[in-house]
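hey can u check if this looks right to u? its 108 residues, i copy pasted from the old doc so theres a chance i mangled smth
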Amino acid sequence: MIKLTGSAVNRVSEMVAKRGSGIGLRIGVTESGCSGYSYALDFAETASDNDVVIEQDGVKIVVAESSMPLLDGMELDFVKQGLNQSFKFNNPNVVSACGCGESFSVTK
């Protein structure tokens, strides 16, 4: 299962409301980068039969079933540091990450 912090719930809710359409946030992984995988975020317009829909505090997160083994147990946070703000992935499955923080690897 994927969990969201209160800050992430608020941010996703704001983003979807501002956009005015869609059902929530889609989280996935793609093979890329020097460590193997990168996170992918997008708005979720719909969910298919091959998606897992997680709802927390009225916010929906849509994840392809194929990505769930890499994301299971992850906590999504939204952090602000000075003028910078971004989502932070606290993923217990990650065993290493590249120096720039753009990609990660997991045990298989």
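The longest strand covers residues 24-32.
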